[in-house]
Amino acid sequence: MRKTSFIRFAVAATAVAVLASTALPANAAVKPANKAVIGDDCTAASAKAGKIAKGRGINGTDLTCMIVTTGSFKSQAKWWYKDLKPFGSVEWVASSAIGGGYGTTAIAIAEAMKTEELLKDYTVTYKTNAPLGLGYFYDQKNRKDLLLITGFAMPGGLATNGSKLSITSSNPIAGIMREAEAFVVPTSSKYKTINDLLADIKANPKTVAIGGGNYGGVDHVTVATLAQTVGVKATDLNYNPYSGAGPLIPDVIGGRVAVGVAGTSEFASYVAAGKMRVLAVTSPKPLSVIKGKTLLQQGVDLTFGNWRGILAPSDLTPAELLNQVKVIDALHSTPSWKSTLVAKSWIDEYRAGDSFTKWLKVENQAILDVLTAFKLIK
């Protein structure tokens, strides 16, 4: 098996760990107050008494045993947030074109929220890159109905565009999942395996046109890390950045790029329709959402994944921010969200509230460090 010496930073190490399993934990039976988490079962008697699970909620808040009145848990006795206020209408900001990962993630979250009656309605505003998306988001004031999808690609997208904006200047809500990457080619491609592609990249990297998300984003880092396994530098690649998978897909199908790289869910329907073939996926095990061998199965010692999360405006009051965190925390416990994770083969990597805020600061710097090491930014 070919070994890789790619830079192992905090993000990649986490990706390996969480990509190792796609199993979703099932809610256990009735949980006592001292072990309760949001969405766990409690007893009807405890609900009638309004029993409190002190400090068991997000950021050390309390959970209450109550009869839930909305969504899949309606009429069930659950440990829940008594003061939770569902969203009305929300505008999601996605820093990609239609069909890109940020937008598809926003839609998936919003649809699950609607099913669970945690959201009444939503729209998605698309901006073509990280500076435009984050800039628009930060320019909005007194907007309690605004949320932005962020992820691995955003710090690099900001840095490579010379933007001074940072994802750490907002109110982090939650990191909600991680997704494996896929390498795809048109069905007529001469490449049958990832090693066929790597052979050409090694021989003459400038002749192999590779399409993916923004320069310095997760797709670019995935390609750079893969190229490193055959001794090719990131700066020697013929990498073509796109504003998400939406505009990339027709260029892959039409053969205008030799290979496309993006999240698995973004290519899945085109692979299923026979318009693309998968050369490899970056998960440790094959996935149900898309048919293709892993890198590991083809002798390349590499796993990788892209996380995405939710940011809220910086001018929310503490009470408003806490309610938004509670809504997403409640969503994470529901059958609708668990079904979404399974349907898309997303990994249930979840952090919320204070823990996500702390993690995001470290993650943001780790991404910039690896991009600097690859000489993709200075």
Automatic annotation (TrEMBL):
InterPro entries: BUG, Bug_dom1
Name of protein: Unannotated protein
Organism the protein comes from: freshwater metagenome
